[in-house]
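Input sequence (187 aa), recorded before submission:
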Amino acid sequence: MTRLLQATLLSLLLSFTASAQTTVGGVQVESQLDVESHSLQHYGSGIRSKFFFKLYVGSLYAEQAGLNATQLLSGEHNVAVSLDIISNKITSERMRDTIEEGFEKASAGNMAPLRERLDSFVAVFDEKIEIGDQFLMFANDQGQLLAYKNQQLLTTVEGADFAQTLFAIWLGEQPADDKLKSKMLGN
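Predicted structure, token format:
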């Protein structure tokens, strides 16, 4: 009887663990990320599409559950956005241009305070981008943004204002994609 109970409990545990992960656009999305000694919980994920092309899976993670977009953008919480590339339409040049356009829109054209840091940040996209690449941008509550490509730290950018503007591309008042924003927020 004890072995049967143990086998049943193990089976339930394994099925719970498997159901904690989801697949979006062919990308395995983790229910939790550990970044710089912080455990971040998955809020939601969606596919960024443009002109009928599926480009990447955008996923949102935060240390604290139940926050809305405004709270997530406040700079007071540990938050991460993951971009998993699913299209060969994403190139280094297009990604840099897209980030530049996103900053222009998210900052309402007030790029001067961000320009030097943005020029440094877009170097994250200098190397060739391929299907399967993952970019992770982690904003900590200390006012730093850490950018990774395929789990390798590429740069750290100082200033909560920078992270707020970057994340506003996906979560701001006028996001690049309303549907993606909703999915990332778990709606």
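Checked by second reader. The chain has one domain: 22-184.
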